[in-house]
Amino acid sequence: MDKNLQQLSELFLKFPGIGQRQATRFAYFVLTQSEGYVKTLADTLVSVRKQAHTCSRCFRVYEGVPGMCAVCKDDHRDRSVLLVVEKSHDVDSFNKTTYNGLFFVLGGLIPIVQKNMIATTNLAQLIKRIEEESQKQYEVILAFPLTPNGEHTDAVIRENLALFPIDISSLGRGLSSGAELEYADAASLNASLKKRE
Description:
Blueprint: H1 3-13, H2 20-31, H3 35-51, E1 52-54, E2 61-63, H4 70-73, E3 78-85, H5 88-94, E4 101-105, H6 117-120, H7 123-133, E5 139-143, H8 148-161, E6 167-170, H9 186-194
Helix pairs in contact: 1-2
């Protein structure tokens, strides 16, 4: 494989869920497209990246003006409920449901073998937020995939929030074991919210 093609393939390989064969197919696909398509693709990537910001409140990546995202600014949302998710696009999945509370993006799962969990996620920021808001009636819903690392993350967060006078629940088992939230349909997510533990 040529050097440039190999480099392009390696860039696609960094995408989540993409293997070597798919990365190579993507690289060859880009090579066979018109210059106009490739320029539009490159310009769009640069533009989207320039417009991307991390919300100062929930840590979700969004497009727009730096500061707080539209969800955190929305006064019509239920501020007594906080749904903690792994990734920014998990927020988009729940925005298709009847859930009307606020969100917090942890920024990743805490692996079972992880030693410095505070440094690799937004756990410290979550603890600080709960500390600030726990004086009122408050519920935290933990919404992680039903995988070993997802369940470990759930347990670690429960342990860290145990001292606060809040209700902590997890999604009900309406989701399949090993399921990723971004692939779940709205009906399954709604059932999971209703059957949370």
